[in-house]
Write a structure and sequence with these properties.
The structure holds 2 protein chains of 2 kinds. Chain A is 31% helix and 24% strand. Chain A is of the alpha+beta class. Chain A has a 10-stranded mixed β-sheet, with helices on both faces. In chain A, helix 13 packs antiparallel against helix 14. Chain A is globular, with a radius of gyration of 24 Å. Chain A starts with a helix and ends with a strand. Chain B has helices at 2-29, 34-38, 45-54, 61-73, 87-122, 127-141, 144-158, 174-208, 211-218, 223-261, 266-275, 279-307, 309-313. Chain B has 13 helices and no strands. By secondary structure, chain B is mainly α. In chain B, helix 11 packs antiparallel against helix 12 (279-307). Classes of the chains: A alpha+beta, B mainly alpha. The interface between A and B is large, with 52 and 51 residues.
Chain lengths: 498, 314
């Protein structure tokens, strides 16, 4: 009897020491479409990172590494790329992964009428199946950003047999990632389960992944503390101190690839003819700002000051570009020279806690230089509309960032860029940013980006405030997690101790 | 009784049409373009153009309305602009959640509010009456989002007694489902219970002053029997009216409560849909909510007739 009791006790303690098989991850936003062709939200990519594999992946220091493609070569003229594919890979419905599957997926992303990947793949002319494990992407012109593009949604491979049913893809995506789709309850959760046939399955100790969107960051943190979650993304800066002081939690922030910025209406409609058209006024605006104070007061040290669209972790980061320091006297002098000693600017911003704090702080800083900010908060959809229609003078907004510098610069600063709300137009900048797209050598591209960056800093159509932070918080039980600058949650090697 | 019900149902049709027109028109007045919201961060011009055509958003508003109505009549509420999931499916997924929340909140509100109101009226001016009044005032004046967050902090984070948020369907785990819903239902039910208590108290006070109650007491009936059997039944009519009206408040309160406790119900669905300008979802949810409101009021009418035989003859 005694022996039995000891055996039972041992068995119990052994099972307690075994790893917990489920990880519950709290997300800031509800997940959008689970079809990589349609998805547009950042948070969708966190789910995709476990559900779907792309052709290539990105390391924390932004290097492109093999994923479904094991190697690749670019032709001498840069007009085609040939990918060798990983052998023995299966989709989660046991369909084989091969060159035909890559072609089917890339063709779908390029041709589906509602695909949001079209412009990302616009440089692709056609895709050729060379043999079962080799695929060739033929380009219209060289595209330096293509590999980075293929590390994201445009390079995600879905089971070809499921592609004909568009609604089916969104409601039950079948990919080749380490975890397969189980269930989605909108606004509540997405559940994934380990796919036993995954080619790298033994590196994934966790059996089940539950993503739970909890938009209120206070409630998200309360859930982590009460044990209903194992980790969360995007902690509110106001909670940083309390998390750091909590021995049961791990705080893992990382500076991301994106940025928060103020853009000025320079030439977008009737409101683009105000005082901000004058470069000196924009300069005075920037000189009035103290980025370090924003970082310390609002960001609790995680709002790293930014002075350009390229993140510090990128090889293209321009170290020679100075960060403007606050200089109220100079700002006043510039305003005076421009003939606007005192001026009022309407300032649009999205109606959330951090944005409100930032704008109030900007308001206080700018008032010392003689600029009065009239605050205009609105919800995101309204702000987007204002940006497109030019119904703003100055606007505060953010960008989640891309691995390749092209994604952070081209669409914001070229004359016809999608996100160029300022309608800023400088042919020289256009030429440089266009050229950088087609050059393959890092040094040559960097020279173009450096040159464009210098003009942009001088023209100041955009004033960068701080780099997008990705503050993750984990329960002490979670081990092996490394935050990446792209803000994604990669579960390779992550375990949860029971 | 049947003709009255049929009549009410007939009146419901123009009501629903009016509601649908209102919601359709009001949404269009909102600033913000659903297609821009849908196109995400990149704002790809080509995608924006395709989406506008796909969802008929390039058509004039009356035509959009006509397309939507004709779809609804054919049983098609459309699909979410944001996630492509059919609205019918979303409603089927979310309605039971909110119904469970509303039901549990109602049970708590009725279970606490009505007895408290009866006791408070019966012991008017006494310590029980004062205690009930203070509780009711607090229930009405504490904002439910604040109460929710406080309860999460105390009950879930500190004491680890109840889950802090989320939803578990009763079919999966009945006990856990009730436990998860208990805090949100209490938060939602607190304000309703308080109002019910106040209404019950004043209705009871009114009835307790009437002659037939005095006669009953004079006959030597027990105090408890007079209060419960004679007074309470007559006080119930105004209470039922209030209950039916409170149902609307309950749905409005559910929006906030679901947000705080991250319950994937109707309220959360509609708030997200409004922020994303997801028109078909907003329209579908509002239509179903209006229908529910009409049905609840119809039930209240039927209840009056059961409670008060005189109404049946009119």
């Amino acid at each position: 009897m005694r022996r039995m009791l000891i055996a039972a006790a041992l068995a119990l303690s052994a099972s307690a020491a075994l790893a917990q098989s489920t990880i519950r991850i709290g997300l800031q936003d509800d997940i959008g479409s689970l079809d990589p062709a349609r998805s547009v939200q950042f948070v969708d990519r966190i789910v995709f990172a476990s559900l779907c594999n792309s052709l290539v992946d990105v390391t924390p220091d932004l290097k492109i590494v093999p994923m479904l493609a094991t190697s690749w070569t670019t032709s001498a003229d840069g007009r085609s790329m040939t990918f060798k594919l990983r052998q023995g890979v299966k989709f989660q419905n046991d369909e084989p992964f091969n060159a035909a599957a890559v072609k089917a997926n890339l063709d779908r992303y390029r041709t589906l009428p509602t695909s949001n990947r079209k412009s990302e793949l616009s440089s692709v002319d056609h895709v050729e199946v060379v043999d079962n494990s080799t695929v060739k992407i033929v380009l219209k012109q060289p595209d330096a950003a293509l590999l980075a593009t293929l590390s994201d949604r445009a390079g995600m491979m879905l089971a070809p047999g499921t592609l004909s049913d568009a609604a089916g893809v969104a409601s039950h995506p079948v990919c080749s990632g380490p975890y397969k789709f189980v269930q989605r309850v909108q606004n509540d959760r997405v559940v994934l389960e380990k796919y036993a046939g995954y080619w790298d399955a033994d590196k994934y100790p966790i059996q089940r992944v539950v993503f739970q969107p909890i938009p209120d960051s206070t409630v998200r943190l309360a859930n982590l503390r009460s044990g209903s979650l194992d980790m969360l993304e995007r902690l509110a800066p106001s909670d940083v101190a309390s998390v750091k002081g909590d021995a049961s939690l791990q705080f893992k922030p990382v500076t991301g690839l994106g940025f928060y910025y103020v853009t000025f209406n320079i030439n977008n409609g009737a409101r683009g003819n105000g005082p901000l058209k004058d470069k000196r006024v924009r300069e005075a605006f920037e000189l009035s700002i103290d980025r370090d104070a924003i970082d310390q007061v609002i960001g609790a040290g995680i709002f790293a000051p930014a002075n350009q669209g390229i993140p510090k972790s990128s090889p293209y980061y321009n170290t020679s570009l100075p960060t403007t320091k606050r200089d109220v006297a100079k700002a006043r002098a510039l305003l005076k020279a421009s003939g606007h000693e005192h001026l009022t600017i309407e300032f649009a911003y999205p109606n959330n806690t951090v944005a409100s704090q930032i704008t109030q702080m900007l308001q206080a800083m700018l008032s010392e230089s003689g600029i009065t900010l009239k605050l205009r908060p609105s919800d995101y959809a309204t702000e987007l509309n204002a940006g497109h229609s030019g119904d703003f003078e100055a606007m505060y907004t953010g960008w989640s960032g891309r691995v390749d510098p092209d994604g952070n610069l081209h669409q914001f600063n070229t004359c016809t860029g999608n996100l160029n709300y300022a309608h800023y137009c400088n042919q020289q900048v256009d030429a440089l940013l266009d050229a950088a797209r087609t050059k393959l050598a890092v040094a040559e591209r960097k020279a173009d980006y450096d040159a464009a960056g210098k003009i942009l800093a001088d023209d100041a159509p955009i004033v960068y405030l701080y780099a997008q932070p990705w503050p993750f918080v984990l329960s002490k039980k979670v081990q092996g997690f490394t935050p990446s600058a792209d803000g994604l949650v990669r579960l390779r090697g992550v375990s949860v101790k029971g | 009784m049947l003709p009255i019900i049929a009549n009410r149902l007939l009146v419901a049709v123009p009501t629903l049409i009016l509601v649908s027109m209102l919601i359709f028109g009001l949404q269009k007045l909102l600033p913000g373009d659903p297609v821009l919201a849908m196109a995400g961060e990149d704002q790809d011009a080509q995608v924006i153009a395709t989406l506008r055509v796909k969802y008929h958003l390039d058509q004039p508003v009356p035509k959009q309305y006509a397309i939507w109505v004709s779809d609804v009549v054919h049983g098609n509420l459309g699909s979410s602009l944001r996630t492509d999931v059919p609205v019918r499916f979303l409603i089927a997924q979310k309605l039971p959640v909110t119904l469970q929340l509303a039901l549990m909140a109602m049970v708590l509100a009725i279970g606490i509010g009505i007895p408290a109101g009866v006791v408070s009226a019966a012991s008017r001016g006494g310590p029980l009456d004062h205690a009930a009044n203070i509780a009711a005032l607090s229930g009405m004046s504490i904002p439910n989002f604040w109460l929710g967050i406080m309860l999460i902090f105390i009950v879930s984070v500190r004491w680890h007694l109840l889950p802090s948020s989320g939803y578990v369907p009763p079919s999966e785990d009945l006990w856990l489902s009730i436990k998860t819903m208990l805090m949100p239902a209490f938060v939602l039910g607190a304000a309703l219970g308080a109002q019910l208590m106040r209404h019950t108290r004043s209705a009871m006070l009114g009835v307790l002053r009437t002659d037939y109650i005095r006669t009953a007491r004079a006959k030597g009936l027990l105090r408890g029997a007079v209060v419960v059997k004679h007074a309470f039944r007559n006080a119930l009519i105004p209470i039922v009216t209030v209950l039916a009206l409170l149902f609307g408040e309950l749905l409005a309160g559910a929006v906030l409560t679901e947000q705080v406790f991250t319950i994937p119900g109707f309220g959360k669905l509609v708030v997200d849909a409004v922020f994303n300008r997801d028109y078909p979802v907003v329209q579908g949810v509002v239509l179903v909510t209006a229908l529910a409101f009409i049905v609840v009021n119809l039930c209240a009418d039927v209840l009056y007739m059961l409670l008060n035989p005189r109404l049946r003859r009119s």
